[in-house]
UniProtKB/TrEMBL annotation:
Compartment list: Cell membrane
Protein family (similarity comment): Belongs to the drug/metabolite transporter (DMT) superfamily. Small multidrug resistance (SMR) (TC 2.A.7.1) family. Gdx/SugE subfamily.
GO CC field: plasma membrane
Name of this protein: Guanidinium exporter
One BP annotation, GO: xenobiotic detoxification by transmembrane export across the plasma membrane
Transmembrane region(s): 33-50, 57-78, 84-102
C-alpha cells in the first residue's frame, strides 16, 4: 500500500507544480487554493509512505515522479520545448527511479 500512497503523492506533486504555475504568483485564488490543497495532500501521503519505505527510495521516487510529470505536462499542456537533451534527462530520471524501486525491499 505504501507504493500506492507514494504514486498518488507523486501525481499530486505534478498537480501542485502545474497549478502553482497557473496561479500566476499566487494571484489567482482558484489555482492558489488547488496548489495548497495538493501540496498538503502530497506531503501527507509521502509521510505515510515513508513509514514503511526507506527515506532515500521514497523521496527519490516522489521527486522523480514530480520532475518527469512536470516535464510531460510542460510539453503537452504548456507548450514547452521538447529537445533531445531534455528527453535524455527525463530518461535518466526514469532509469534512476526504476533502479531505486528494484533496489528496495
Amino acid at each position: 500500500m505504501a507504493w500506492v500512497y507514494l504514486l498518488v503523492a507523486g501525481v499530486l506533486e505534478v498537480v501542485w507544480a502545474f497549478t502553482m504555475k497557473q496561479s500566476n504568483g499566487f494571484t489567482n485564488i482558484k489555482y492558489s487554493a488547488i496548489t495548497l490543497v495538493a501540496m498538503i495532500a502530497s506531503f501527507g501521503l509521502l509521510s505515510v509512505a515513508m513509514r514503511s519505505l526507506p527515506l532515500g527510495t521514497a523521496y527519490t521516487i516522489w521527486t522523480g515522479i514530480g520532475a518527469v510529470g512536470a516535464f510531460i505536462v510542460g510539453i503537452t499542456v504548456l507548450g514547452e520545448a521538447l529537445t533531445p537533451m531534455r528527453v535524455v534527462a527525463a530518461l535518466l530520471i526514469v532509469s534512476g527511479l526504476v533502479l531505486m524501486k528494484l533496489s528496495s525491499s
